[in-house]
Design brief:
This protein has 72 residues and is α+β, with helices and mostly antiparallel strands. It has one domain. Helix content is 31%, strand content 18%. It has 3 helices and 2 strands, in the order αββαα. Strand 1 and strand 2 form a beta hairpin.
Length: 72
């Protein structure tokens, strides 16, 4: 059973990494879920989960292009 070190580090068991597809060098995000419970998620998985979640019609068509042309 892994123990939190004095440097707040935890070594994840190899079988857990293998089963979840995580590997050395992956960027991860640690999400608190409940007292004593955290979730480890790859940054890519989080991006995939929220990608496209913003309503595409926030601005009328052509508005942003018009605004950008004013910067030139």
């Amino acid at each position: 059973m892994p123990i939190i070190s004095s440097k707040n580090q935890v070594t994840l068991p190899v079988d857990v990494l293998r089963d979840t597809g995580l590997k050395a060098g992956d960027s991860v995000i640690i999400i608190p879920r409940a007292h004593g419970c955290i979730e480890v998620q790859t940054a890519e998985a989080l991006i995939d989960a929220i990608a496209g979640s913003v309503e595409p019609s926030v601005y009328p068509p052509g508005y942003l292009e018009e605004m950008r042309s004013e910067w030139e």
